[in-house]
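Support request, please re-run this one:
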Amino acid sequence: MQGMRILAITDSPHTLRPASDTTVAILEEARLRGHEVWVCEIGELWLQHGTPGASARAVSKVSRTTAPALTIGDTRERLPLAHFHVVLMRKDPPYDSVYHQATLILEYARGKTFLCNDPRGLREANEKLYIFHFPELVAPTIVTHRLDELRAFLEEQGGEMVVKPLDGYGGSAVFHARRGDSNTNAILEVSTHNGQRWVMAQRYLPEGKQGDKRILLLGGEPIGCLLRVPQGGDLRSNMVIGGLATASTLTARDLEICARVRPRLLQDGLHFVGLDVIGNYLTEINVTSPTGVQAIDRLQNTRLENQIVDYLEQNAPLSL
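Re-run finished. Output below.
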C-alpha cells in the first residue's frame, strides 16, 4: 500500500532515543516507503462534537544514529484521526488516568482508521494482571494488599518471592523478598503502602539470573526475541535500567506460550505486544508500548520494522 498517513502518539518527541526506541525504527521504515509520518503527544488529542482528532506535527526526517531521532515541523495541524490510515499508540507507561482518558478518545476513531493497539484492548490488558487469562502458563502468583497474605505466600514459596506494583513499569519498585531478611517487612509495607495498595507477588524463579526473554508478537505471531540479562547483581533485567540484551532463540515452550495467548490477543485487538518469559513461565504481557526491535535487529541482523510496516499496510483501510 502506497501513500499512507501514519500518526504516532508518543512521549515528547525529543525524548525518543535514536538507537534504541522501537517507535523510531517503525517510523523510519514508514518514511523510507514514502508514507507520511506525523506525531503528537497524548495531551494533543482532542474530541470535538464527537469527532476525535490530534494537533499533530509532520515528521520530515528520522535518524537512528544521531539526536534528534525525529525532525519535526513547528506547526501543529488540527487533523481528525480519520485523516490517518494508521494511528499508533506508542506512549510509554505508566498507564495512568491521562492514558486511560486518551483511550476513550481513541474509541471514537474506531472503524475510521487502523488503531494499533486497539484502545479497548489497552484498557483490558493491565500488563501485570492480563497473564491470569492463561493460568497454566504462569508461576504461582497472587495479587493482594494484605500483609498477612503476602507473608503466608512467602512461606508457601519456600521463603523467596518477587513483589511488584500493578502499575509499575521498566522494573521500577520490583523487590526480591526473602524469609529472614531484616528488610522484608519494610519491603512489604512500602510496596503495599501499609496494606492500602494491591501488589503482585510471584514465586522467585532462579532462572531469572540467566535473564528473562522478551518475545515480540505481531498479529499474534512471534517475529523475534532476545534475552535480557541482569547486571551487577540486580534482580531486574530491563534494558532501561542496564540489563544486557543478548541473542536468543525460541524454545518449544516459548512457541507453546505464543500459540496459547494468540487467540486472546487477536480478540482484544492487541496487534503488537511483548511477552516476558522466565524459564517456562509467562511473567508479563506488555501492550502499551512494547520495545526491543532495534536490539533484536542488531543481535540477529534483521529489520523487524519491515514486518511491522508490512502489517500496518495490510490492515490499514484502503481508502479514507
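Residues 154 and 255 are 31 Å apart (CA to CA). The two ends are 13 Å apart (CA to CA).
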